[in-house]
Amino acid sequence: MKTFEKSNALLERELKVSPLAAQTYSKSYRYFSKGFAPSYMDHGEGCYIYDVDGNKFIDFMCALGPITVGYNEPAVNEAVIKQVNKFASGSLQSELEVELAEKICEIIPCAEMVRFVKNGGDATTAAIRLARAYTGRDHVLMSGYHGMQDWSIGASNNHKGVPDAVRALTTNFTYNDLDDLEKKLQEHKVAAVILEPIQSSGPKEGYLKRVKELTYKYGAILVFDEVVSGFHYALGGAQEVFGVSPDLVAFGKGMGNGYPISAVAGRKDLLKQIEEGVFVSTTFGGESIAMAASLATLKILEQPGFYEHINKIGTILRSGIQERIDKYELNDVLAVTGMPQHCGVAFDGHGSLSYLDVQSIYSQTILQHGIIQFAIYFLNAHHTEKEAKVYLDATDEAFSLIRKAIDSDSLEGILIGGKVNPVFKRNIK
Ligand SMILES: Cc1ncc(COP(=O)(O)O)c(C=O)c1O
Q1: Is 239 in the pocket of ligand 1 (CB under 6 A)?
Q2: Closest CA to 232 of 336, 383, 334
Q3: How far is the C-alpha of 227 from the C-alpha of 123, rounded, in Å?
Q4: Residue extent(s) of CATH 3.40.640.10 domains in the chain
Q5: What integer pLDDT is reported at residue 427 of this predicted model?
Q6: 46, 213, 217, 391: which one has the fewest Cβ atoms less than 10 Å from its Cβ?
Q7: CATH no. of 74-301
Q8: What 3-state class would DSSP assign to 116?
Q9: Which atom of ligand 1 is least distant from the CA of 121?
Q10: Which pLDDT score, from 0 to 100, does residue 112 have?
Q11: Which of 327, 407, 321, 326 is nearest to 362 (CA)?
Q12: By the 8 A CB rule, do 109 and 267 touch?
């Protein structure tokens, strides 16, 4: 039985001085089953993490996406250390910036030019600003989550603190629903259509192509938010997988195997506006350690077989989850959501059990099996069939307990740990 004395003591200290006791919303203790999860990590190795109490977990969360090749990856470490010994941020650019910009333009279908920033939200925000400047319009249509900035979070449920005047400039549209998109394109003078190209179980046949046609028909700019899909499905992102290139793309998360780097890339005439007064600039945009990490990461992602491996493990997991949903006849409360490379379970309530009750049983059980994961997994190069088996065994037990709870319409004797809290709900089902 794992214990978490040191983690719990740190959590108590941090809660007094830092809200949520985590700098990323979805990494907070609130979203893990209380009593079964650590809060603080000591180190990572491949697809494993070790908490501050010395407990070992298989990490199917990958830091919410950034760890694409693995923790403590020797080639990335080597590149980083080499650059650490030179400089991090400098008064001039590093040579790495040239190399990385050329690399992005080589591997990303829509990229003629690129601008580096730090977080995914910096990149999506830059894309929106470029689109607004180019079209001379203000309105944005969005589908998915695009970061914490006012223009996007204002259109979500978490809009407290965003002025109404800003909120009025962004409208959500429904993924995989072309009629909804066209209706909203007719209702507003739209600068940009921005979407996560892969949501739920992926785009319907021809959907992305038609989104592009509609966007152009109404004179708007198409932006793919590939902060999640980028570097997880294919080297060239969803635009490579589905053969549809946007005008602009935002990348983040997986670019640097955990080092902070993101980018907006796309058509030259759009990016060139940065030379003509469209302001996209950050102090740390050219910080060189993350660039060294990113170049080393991309070199690994480029190796033949990398994405075949991710796809193979993901396919085992995805089909294994569905088989177990069928086995326990849980199709009315559980659904597989996502494509094999990044996928998981969506929960509904049943009888007197809320969806959070059901999710809490799942969360508790997989933690007991030594797995750190949100409801949806990310994979890196080190996940193998061995880890997939642990995952599916844990899933099997979790689903059998969910079945039991539903049959008895009770959590008694089943949910031992605390309930998880609702997370920021993305458009995932
Ligand atoms: C699709 C998508 N876009 C943008 C963002 C924002 O990225 P960041 O948190 O790095 O600003 C996220 C973060 O989860 C994301 O999932």
Answers
A1: no
A2: 383
A3: 9
A4: 74-301
A5: 39
A6: 217
A7: 3.40.640.10
A8: strand
A9: 11
A10: 98
A11: 321
A12: no
Tokens found for residue 65: 């996406």
Domain 5-64+305-408 class, CATH top level: alpha beta
Strands, sheet with 48-51, edge to edge from the N-terminal-most edge strand: 41-45, 48-51, 56-59, 371-372
Give pLDDT, residue 373.
Answer: 92
Q: Is the CB of 120 under 6 A from ligand 1?
A: yes
* C-beta 225 within 6 A of ligand 1: yes
What is the distance in A from the centroid of ligand 1 to the CA of 140? 17
CA distance 319 to 23: 34
- Ligand 1: does its nearest atom lie under 6 Å from the Cβ of 147? yes
Closest CA to 55 of 40, 66, 68: 40
Structure tokens at 308: 């075949």
Query: Which are the contacts of 365, defined by CB distance < 8 A and separation ≥ 6?
Result: 394, 397, 398, 401
The first and second tokens of residue 102, run together, are 């050329």
* CB-based contacts of 56, cutoff 8 Å, min separation 6: 48, 49, 50, 370
3-state secondary structure of 224: strand
Query: Which residues of the chain, if any, have pLDDT below 50?
Result: 426-429
Give the span between the Cα atoms of 38 and 6, in whole angstroms: 9
Nearest CA owner, ligand 1 atom 6? 147
List the one residue out of 198, 234, 255 whose CA is nearest residue 310.
234
CB count, 10 Å around CB of 83? Answer: 21
Q: Which atom of ligand 1 is nearest to the CA of 196?
A: 1
Ligand 1 contact, 146 CB (< 6 A)? yes
